[in-house]
């Protein structure tokens, strides 16, 4: 087998694998705002109010459910908000009032919400809430990003002819692999002390493959730890009959941790990147 060149391999690493739906989940954004649209429209009557505190009290007394919109107007998830100053500490509940209306007026005034609504800084609270939800959803990108690499790898596993829950499996713990195929993987889990889980497990006629996947856009100490731990995992796996450890990784974050990755690359035959998958490595590996 021809020895691969690490620098050439690393040069193929991608800056991103973001798909179109990575940025904002608009369906979720709209769904969240729809749930409180009626209440937001009631609060819309406060925009430009000349007596906002009195109008707010009247609305909250008649429609107490409108209070549940307030946390979102401050870009807060949930129904409880803590606030303190020289007048005391308060944990406001916006699902079920736990203070007087007067105290909620203090909250609206001191957070600046009354000023924003009264002075037309926004023209429509539904539109404003959509904007807030969009901003909050952008925080979900990290989770979506983590799944993108898994989704990409799964696509290539399927393209190689494997079927989910028949010949390949997602997120499988070592103990479950041992039970299903009668393997002893105790050396991979510190003799059962850790609960190691593989992103994918692929079964062929003669081999069981445990696959780990990740993608790093930025550097950091975590990458060095990952490279070292997977190098160790690979060495332990080499001694297990009928089991092979496969690592599929990518992302320009590795360029800052190339030293540790190079060490792992030198001792591990089954480390691949996206370019390898595009060039049919799955079909060759899982023969």
Main sheet overview: 5 strands, mixed
Number of strands: 7
**Spans with pLDDT under 50 lasting ≥5 residues?**
none
Q: Structural class, judged by helices and strands?
A: alpha/beta
CATH third-level topology of the largest domain: Trna Endonuclease, Chain: A, domain 1
Percentage beta strand: 5-15%
Q: Give the overall silhouette.
A: elongated
**Total count of helical runs of at least 4 residues:** 14
Order of helices and strands: HHHHHEEHHHHEHEEHEHEHH
CATH architecture of the largest domain: 3-Layer(aba) Sandwich
Tell me the radius of gyration. 27 Å
- The CATH class assignment of the largest domain is Alpha Beta
Global mean pLDDT: 93
- Count of all domains: 2
Describe this protein's structure.
There is one protein chain. This protein is of the alpha/beta class. It has two domains: 6-20 and 140-285, Trna Endonuclease, Chain: A, domain 1 (3-Layer(aba) Sandwich), CATH 3.40.1350; 26-139, no CATH class. Helices cover 45% and strands 15% of the residues. The protein has helices at residues 6-10, 26-34, 37-43, 52-62, 70-73, 101-110, 113-118, 125-137, 141-159, 174-181, 221-238, 258-267, 274-278, 281-285; strands spanning 80-85, 88-93, 168-173, 197-203, 208-215, 243-250, 271-272. Strands 3-4-5-6-7 form a five-stranded mixed sheet, with helices on both faces. β6, α12 and β7 form a beta-alpha-beta unit. It is elongated and about 80 Å long. The model has no long low-confidence stretch (mean pLDDT 93).
